[in-house]
């Protein structure tokens, strides 16, 4: 119980300190108040955005893009990763090429995505999918490769069919690595959607931040900044919970 | 949470405050001008400021006091200039109607000291192979422009006239360079930009669907205008410098605003890299005197009031602007008496676009 309280209180105290610093920086106008907007005003902006429904609309668009891009990127990553992890030959053929594309920073993909897929949804979803693909691919192929040969042999002795051996041995062994990749990817997906929307969009939380900046509404920029952070923390926590639920044998210490 | 942490936070705060206060007391070594960048990325201004820059009028005026004049060109145009004003990096700037309104409404301490020109054109361009024939057909389509610029507000006025609002389009925030690429790549259905589209259209790279260079009554309602503002702090600390700056500005205006010397005005417009043809067509048969005269008259105030109201109505600003607080006409009124007395335009104009051009030509300085 004591430990639990500490886990909650320690980060909370740091966050309160940051808030206090923000408040003081505004109170003494270290930065112009038009640029660094006081916390109370930003809070009011968030409430206004919620009441007008703008927050839900923009957040909805961003989350929709993340869901689609993440879904596609993770599915592809798991499929390709499992294939490469289980077949030497496939890895020899395709590994180096995939590695080549991996070297390209994800942001460098954006202009090409826009040229090829247009400025609307498809390019954003593809951008997010690419960002999510590699961590899942890497983790999955490592996870599948890491399945202990001993276990597979035991399965063979017990006469498990290939399908059963896959479901009973490979999947549980590789799952921790796959989930770790998925967790990395969800954070990347969220970063990717915001940057995709910063580059060219007519909706979404990243767009809202650019728009606010162009209209010199810094409260909107800071509100967007905080909301992006909050959603990031929420999805990360969600994934922590998912990991604990699916892999009860590997208790994760947050 | 420990004591040293609190103390170091306070040290930083106090240190920053101390720096800020000493900075204010130091005598000025330079006047920092914020200028809207151009698509050519050349550090040269056009119009009245262009003339002053070309002839080093500000530099000469302030050189005797050892004050340098710094010209900073903002590639991000109006919105970037607002950030420069807010962080104290600009003393005086000349920029568009909407950014000026956004800055003031957003709490930046600016004072409008000289009217900018009215008659800033917008061009709505579509891809050359586009089948779109009217603005109404663009409803629901992908439109690009740089938000927070005068083009944005002119677009809002334009679509309002069609019974539409900004929300009836998919709007992408793109710079002119990005916009041209997106237009040609078919990524967007239209782009709202400046007169470089005249040339692009000639080369077959775009088709102009609508432009205000017709200078008809409707166009004069859509066109943008400019504001020349000083930072409130600079104005309070150095009213004398502001007065001298405005004097020079009016002198430059007196030297350039003459319908008989239209060609020279057009040459000023070509400084960044626009072609003469482009400037000529952009100007149309608009009166350079009426559009650029730095006078606080009904022509300008009606534009200013309309611009603020349009921004409020479209939800671009959330707070109204009290003109009596924003406009400080004392510097200009004084400068007009000393630098432009006897010039007919110094008396001002009734309402934009309604003036008789012949009368102005006749009244030009002999």
Strand content of chain A: under 5%
Question: What is the CATH superfamily of chain A?
Answer: MetI-like
Question: Please, how many helices of chain A?
Answer: 10
Low-confidence stretches of chain B: 1-25, 355-366
Structural class of chain B: alpha/beta
Give the CATH class of the largest domain in chain B: Alpha Beta
Layout: helices, strands, pairs:
The complex is a heterodimer of chains A (254) and B (366).
Chain A: H1 2-27, H2 39-52, H3 54-86, H4 88-102, H5 109-117, H6 121-145, H7 149-157, H8 162-199, H9 205-214, H10 218-246
Chain B: H1 3-25, E1 30-36, H2 47-54, H3 57-63, E2 68-74, H4 77-86, E3 92-96, H5 97-105, E4 110-120, E5 123-126, E6 142-145, H6 150-160, E7 170-173, H7 176-184, E8 190-193, H8 196-202, E9 207-211, H9 217-222, E10 224-231, H10 232-237, H11 239-256, H12 262-269, H13 276-283, H14 288-292, H15 298-313, H16 323-326, H17 330-339, H18 357-362
Helix pairs in contact in B: 2-11, 2-12, 3-11, 4-5, 5-15, 11-17
Notable features of this structure?
heterodimer; A: 254 residues; mainly alpha; MetI-like fold; 10 helices; B: 366 residues; alpha/beta; D-Maltodextrin-Binding Protein, domain 2; five-stranded mixed beta sheet; disordered N terminus; disordered C terminus
Explain this structure.
The complex is a heterodimer of chains A (254) and B (366). Chain A has ten helices and no strands. Chain A has 254 residues and is an all-alpha fold. Chain A has one domain (38-246): MetI-like fold. In chain A, helix 3 (54-86) packs antiparallel against helix 4, helix 6 packs antiparallel against helix 8 and helix 8 runs parallel beside helix 9. The longest helix of chain A has 38 residues, at 162-199. The radius of gyration of chain A is 22 Å and the shape is globular. Chain B has two domains: 27-119 and 224-362, Periplasmic binding protein-like II (D-Maltodextrin-Binding Protein, domain 2, 3-Layer(aba) Sandwich); 123-211, Periplasmic binding protein-like II (D-Maltodextrin-Binding Protein, domain 2, 3-Layer(aba) Sandwich). Chain B has 18 helices and ten strands. A five-stranded mixed beta sheet of chain B has the order 2-1-3-10-4, with helices on both faces. A five-stranded mixed beta sheet of chain B has the order 7-6-8-5-9, sandwiched between helices. Residues 1-25 and 355-366 of chain B have low confidence and may be disordered.
